[in-house]
């Protein structure tokens, strides 16, 4: 299992870099070419959401992205350190049970439509959005 970690300051310009890195690693782990746009868009949405939250609540804190190739899956976790009034529990959220304003405000509806599997995990320090797609089992593409 290979892991890449990336941290960046809460600036919108860094979202593009995060998308490019995620797409490049997805390609290397064998994610199908037809899914790469979905990876790019979902990672961009999750990072944009984190940047927006950090700029309001904790502009000096970095946003963290973890990209992993794990058991035939390409997994991306975007972690923020911003508090959320909507998220008060430490268990995965059922995206279908969230209010419309929450879904619209954080772009989770878009992310859940793009990623094969999505989990929103409230943490004591913020929120983790974990997304995954099927990855190839053969030799990584170059």
How does this structure look, described?
With 142 residues, the chain is of the alpha+beta class. 37% of the residues lie in helices and 27% in strands. It is built from four helices and five strands. A five-stranded antiparallel sheet has the order 1-2-3-5-4, covered by helices on one side. Helix 1 packs antiparallel against helix 2 and helix 2 runs antiparallel to helix 4. Mean pLDDT is 84; it is low at 87-91 and 97-105.
Q: Which helices and strands appear, and what pairs or packs with what?
A:
Elements: E1 2-8, H1 13-28, H2 36-57, E2 63-70, E3 73-80, H3 100-106, H4 108-114, E4 117-123, E5 126-134
Antiparallel strand pairs: 1-2, 2-3, 3-5, 4-5
Helix pairs in contact: 1-2, 2-4
């Amino acid at each position: 299992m290979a892991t890449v970690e990336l941290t960046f300051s809460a600036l919108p310009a860094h979202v593009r870099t995060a998308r490019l890195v995620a797409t490049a690693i997805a390609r290397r782990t064998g994610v199908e070419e037809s899914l790469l746009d979905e990876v790019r868009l979902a990672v961009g949405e999750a990072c944009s959401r984190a940047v927006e939250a950090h700029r309001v609540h904790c502009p000096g804190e970095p946003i963290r992205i973890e990209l992993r190739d794990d058991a035939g899956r390409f997994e991306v976790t975007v972690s923020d350190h911003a508090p959320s009034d909507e998220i008060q529990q430490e268990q995965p959220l059922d995206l279908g049970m969230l209010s419309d304003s929450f879904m619209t405000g954080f772009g989770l509806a878009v992310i859940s439509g793009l990623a094969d599997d999505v989990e929103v995990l409230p943490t004591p320090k913020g929120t983790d959005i974990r997304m995954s797609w099927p990855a190839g089992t053969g030799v990584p593409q170059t």
